[in-house]
Amino acid sequence: MVGLSPWYAGLAGFIGLIWDAITDPIIGQISDRTQGRFKGRCPFLFNGTLLLSASLVILFSPPQDLEEFQLFLYMLIAYLLLNTALTILAVPYMALASGLTNNRNERSVLFALRFAFGNLGSLAAVALPGLLLASAHNRMGQIEATAYIAWLIAGLILVTGLISWSTTLRFRSQVFLHSGLSIFESLRSIKSNKAFLPLLGSYTIATFGVTLNSGLARYYYLYRLRLTEAEVGILLVFFMFVFTLSLIGWVRISRTYGKLKPLRWGIILLGIGSSISYPLFPVGNLMAPMIVAGGILGGLVGCVVLLDSILTDVIDLDQIKHGNEKSGIYFGIWRFASKLARATAFFITGALLSHLGFQPNMVQSETVSIGISWVFGPGVGICLILSGIVLITYKFDDSKQKQVSRLLQKRRKVHQKAI
Q1: Structure pTM?
Q2: Are 108 and 60 in contact (CB under 8 A)?
Q3: pLDDT one-digit tens code per residue, 404-414
Q4: Which ranges of 39-141 would DSSP assign to H, the alpha helix?
Q5: Measured between alpha carbons, how far is 151 from 145 in angstroms, rounded to an integer?
Q6: Which of 7-11, 141-145, 325-329 has the highest mean pLDDT?
Q7: Which of 68, 201, 387, 393 ranks highest by number of CB atoms within 10 Å?
Q8: Which residues contact 299 (CB under 8 A, 6 or more apart)?
Q9: 271 vs 111, 262, 288, 349, CA distance in Å?
């Protein structure tokens, strides 16, 4: 739309991806070192919201009289600015859970709410730009219409971001000793936390599988099951609805049975269900995937909320051992691993489709159609089962998590009396 060649567009995307990944732990470390000075991570939410709103408008409002290389530099800088703003906002935002409450179950609720509103935002991101663009395009050109929509979405970001900032500003941080370590000292400390690396491995494998699923979903439903675009849209919206609703159930289950066991068996059952069901769905029938994929499997996906919640317990264990809180860099590494897994999954999705002989916008051969169903089903399912198997041998179980939580609460009470 802006006139960049595919080479420049791909180069900008690649540089932006690398920059986006490496800034996650850096921003997390900065928020750990400075939250004591600012009495929490709230300033990162405020500044990140302002910068994200501004950078979105800048990205979608390029000057019209630039040569191609100048336009490339403009778009690259704007894209890097957008990614940086998102990191400034997102990493401290995720790390806030450790500081807002020291109750393990309340943290699960916080992450469930984040997932729920994130799903709502995803649906809005899919629907609103198309509707607004269709409306605005009747009154102005495509570039002007896109810039107009960018202003509207930037305003929405500004309102919601400032609401989050003002709300969390009222809460006093539960952290009693902030990290003054360098990034290399923090990384060495994290490496010594034996409860972190297996959890990170399980999370990375699960993220890879889920991304492979999302990358192949439309190909599977359109070219294997031969559903219409409208039917695919209905199915995906229903899946997101069930997924969001299931978060309530997983939070309640974790209160009774702990976090680890429901997470472990939820992921394994999701993997088994994906492996069995997707290759068997009848062609042209919407009801079977609606019931199984949208209903049952959509409900099982909600168990992933417990991964983030367990991470906060792992961060508490680090705080017990080393005396300071480093949730910022922990969640920075968490997001770094997630982005690496997603990028790899998207690359493999394209490679697999090419290897199978997929041809866009046409009826696929039976070989290609079956190949897509096997990658979408058992291929994804194996990843999820492996993620669950990693958790079977996970040593930092629910009893140890509760023990760490009780010990940390005692230390906080002693600290509060001392001050």
Answers
A1: 0.87
A2: no
A3: 888 887 776 66
A4: 42-59, 68-100, 104-137
A5: 10
A6: 325-329
A7: 387
A8: 242, 243, 245, 246, 249
A9: 22, 14, 18, 18
